[in-house]
Amino acid sequence: MTPRVGLYAAVATRGFRRYSTYRAATLAGIFTNTVFGVIIAYSFIALWDQRPSLGGYGQAQALTFVWVAQALIMPVGLFSGGIVDELSDRVRSGAVAIDLHRPIPLLWWRFAEDAGRAAYHFLTRGLAPVLVGSLLFDLAWPQRVSTYGVFLIAVALAIGVGFGIRFLLGLLAFWVIDVRGFVVMLTITQVFFSGMVLPLVVFPDALRTLAEALPFRCLVQIPADVLLHEDTGTTVLPLLGIQLLWLVALLVAGHLLTGAAVRKVVVQGG
Amino acid sequence: MASSLRAYGLIAGAWVRASMTYRASFVAMTVGQALITLIDFAAIAIMFSHIDELGGFTLGEVALLYGMSGFALGAADLLMGNTEQLGRRVRDGSFDAMLVRPVAPLVQIAADQFALRRVGRITQAVAVLGWGLAASNIDWSVPKVLVLLATLVSGSVIFCAVFVLGGAFQVLAGDATEVMNAFTYGGNTLTQFPLSIYPAEVVRSVTFIVPLAFVNWYPALYLLDVEDPFGLPSALQYASPVAAVLAAAAAAVAWRAGVRRYRSTGS
Q: What is the SS3 assignment for B198?
């Protein structure tokens, strides 16, 4: 077991370094996340100025939500890309045959790599815009240290759920040659129902019920709710439980579908 | 000029034919483009389910702003959006090949991977714009129609200029796609809302530095007969074409300067 752990750690570290190499791209990304954060923050100020306790958030909570959402875009892979493109490209080109020969299962290898990437993105494109945001706006920081602890757990689970969704989408390439259309459709659904464009607490009832039945709120809304729970009075444990359930369900589905794909695969060429 | 346009048409046409190979995917992505931008408007509509006015503007008026900005960005993205890919071409050295071909490099880079699916975004913006115009209670006159049409063209030119400026920046910086996104897509998001919700410094910057306010804000004030909440001269409300010409000139100068200073990666 021990060498396995070492192997996964090595894969995760490479995932981290693969992105940490490009410092200019990271800085550019931080800049963009910050600009969008500022724009959305002003629209939320305009909204909460008129409705000071909309959705159970005060203005400070709403603004905190904006920056948490910006911080999570990259770690949870809200706009897809990355693994989806890589996996589907490798299926199309046949290179996935090599991946299937590796000493560790495709699912866990990709998960380790994506975890490394997500850790890097959280530390840079996650934290830096929040720092700028907290200088520009009055945010609602939790008082208790333990809240930050459970928030980090919620973020880790969000990263896992985000991976699970994108892995399934990438696997789709075994059945559909060009997955881009599906990627676009899923991205739209994911962005809308994650809480990224507007907190789900502001959604009309019907849409909110729908959002609560989908896994996407695990990506943004739940981590934000966990961070804000001191002010909003939300109970944290059930939220983490929902994230865990979705994570397990998605990973099991990923495992089963990988098996089905492997049985189906016909590698082209010599 | 005519030969450049012809070259643009030929390259773009080839990409359109290529995209038609996977027709189902093309349709899905065109619809997807329309839907993904519709999300922003859905968010605005949900906001308006809790309020009647945002920054002093009704939902119909915000739809008008949204549609003008969305059309301008969509048209610019269709025509010039691939300048975003320039950083990659600089890094892998394929920009060198463009420089030795007998077609202007800007034409090549802009038409490279021309994506007809982007009409999805434009169609959606036009639909929202149409609804916004109908819902905003405008006292129509001939000058207003002219201002609206001139603004759609000027706005597209302004966003094209931003794309070209970003491209020029990438020639020097190598990798700055995300910085560009902050000005193009970020500029689009910024102008989807009435500028009255932002601090005066933001409004001054998008008036005098990056002229995004001319894409929709100033002409919309004129169309709606609303007084400028920031008290800036009303002449600005007709000035979108001037802003577009200035932006295009600045972009042309920057592009030439960028290409002149280009150093190949050598790989």
A: coil
Helix axes A127-136, A23-50, angle to 10 degrees: 40
pLDDT for A2 beyond 70: no
Asked whether A139 and A56 are in contact (CB, 8 A), the reply is no
Which of B49, B179, B202 shows the shortest C-beta gap to A204? B49
Q: Helix count (H) and strand count (E) of chain A?
A: 12, 0
Q: pLDDT tens across B181-232, in order?
A: 889 999 999 999 999 999 999 999 999 999 999 999 999 999 999 999 998 9
CA dihedral B122, B123, B129, B130 (to 10 degrees): 150
Report the gap between the CA of A155 and the closest CA in chain B (Å): 24
| Integer Cα distance of B89 and B180 in angstroms | 16
Cα–Cα distances in angstroms (integers) from residue B75 to residues A47, B2, B25, B46, B239, in the given order: 30, 20, 21, 27, 20
Kindly report the nearest CA distance between residue B92 and chain A, in angstroms.
15
Which value does ipTM take for this structure?
Answer: 0.89
From chain B, the residues in CB contact with A204 under 8 A are 46, 49
Compute the distance between CA of residue A61 and CA of residue A69 in angstroms, rounded to an integer: 12
Contacts of B173 in chain A (CB under 8 A): 24
pTM of the entire structure?
Answer: 0.90
Cα angle A51-B48-A80, degrees, rounded to a multiple of 5: 105
* Predicted confidence (pLDDT) per residue in B86-97, tens digit: 888 887 888 888
| pLDDT single digits (tens) B105-141 | 888 888 888 888 888 889 999 999 999 999 998 999 9
CA dist A194 and A214 (Å) reads 9
Nearest residue to A7 via CA among A99, A106, A103: A103
CA distance B38 to chain A (A): 9
Q: In chain A, whose CA is at the least distance from the CA of B190?
A: A39
pLDDT, tens digit (0-9, with 9 covering 90-100), for B15-58? 888 888 878 878 888 888 888 888 889 999 999 999 999 999 99
- Residue A235: DSSP 8-state: -
Q: How distant, in Å, are the alpha carbons of B176, B218, B259 from that of B179? A: 5, 26, 19
CA separation for the pair B252, A158 (Å, rounded): 45
Type of residue found at B195: L
Strand partners for B86: none
Read out DSSP for A186-222?
A: HHHHHHHHHTSSS-GGGS-HHHHHHHHHSGGGGTTHH
Residue B249 burial (10 A CB sphere; 0-12, 13-18, 19+):
exposed
Contact of B71 with B129, CB cutoff 8 Å? yes
Angle, CA B168 vertex, CA B164 and CA B172 arms, to 5°? 160
Whether B177 has a pLDDT exceeding 80, the answer reads: no
Of A24, A40, A47, the CB nearest to B173: A24
Q: Which residues contact B185 (CB under 8 A, 6 or more apart)?
A: B73
Residues A194 and A191: their CA atoms lie apart, in Å, by 5
